[in-house]
Structure formats: structure tokens, C-alpha cells
């Protein structure tokens, strides 16, 4: 096998994700799993569900006070989550 046909594992996986059009879904999963890391343990404990549809992050919270507080900082939340994901994954956040 010549050097020209060799790929690193990272490159091969990146090509596979692109070929099967899975990169967007992987980015969404990365963002959802980083919710607790980005927002902290207090918010993580009060989060019931996190999902993404059409570039909108839906977060179900058990605390009305926390929901209200987070609503005031939506732009900051979007920025921090996209930064953690390493790419632009979401445009909006809906807290319920």
C-alpha cells in the first residue's frame, strides 16, 4: 500500500461522516451531551430533557425560576454551546 492511499483514523472517520451525511447529527449529539458541562451541575440537575430540531435547542426544566433566569441569557447560552461543539449547531434556544 502506498503512502498516497493511507489516512489517519480521524481523517477516515471524517470522510465517512461526510459520505453518509452524519456530521450534522454528530455535532448535535456533541452539543446535547455538553449541556451539563457548559451550564454547570446546578442547571444539569434541574434539566429534564434536551433535544434539537431544525437548529433549535429545546430544554425542559423542572424549575420555573431557572427557566426565567436562563431566558434572559439565551444569546450567551447559544454562543457557549456552539463554541463547545466547535461549530455552529443551533440558532435558537427554547426553555419550557
Summed up, what is this model?
By secondary structure, the protein is an alpha+beta fold.
As residue ranges, the low-confidence spans are none
- Helix-and-strand structural type: alpha+beta
- Strand content is 15-25%
Total helices: the number is: 6
Strand order across the largest sheet: 1-2-3
- The helicity comes to 40-55%
C-alpha termini separation: 55 Å
Tell me, what's the shape?
A: elongated
Question: Main sheet, how many strands, which sense, barrel?
Answer: 3 strands, mixed
- Radius of gyration, rounded? 17 Å
| Overall pLDDT score | 90
Topology summary:
Elements: H1 9-19, H2 23-33, H3 35-39, H4 41-45, E1 47-53, E2 56-61, H5 64-71, H6 74-85, E3 92-95
Parallel strand pairs: 2-3
Antiparallel strand pairs: 1-2
Describe the structure.
With 96 residues, the protein is of the alpha+beta class. The protein contains six helices and three strands; from the N terminus they run ααααββααβ. The protein has a three-stranded mixed beta sheet with strand order 1-2-3. α2 (23-33) crosses α6. The radius of gyration is 17 Å and the shape is elongated.
Describe the structure using short key phrases.
54% helix; elongated; 6 helices; three-stranded mixed β-sheet; 96 residues; single chain; alpha+beta
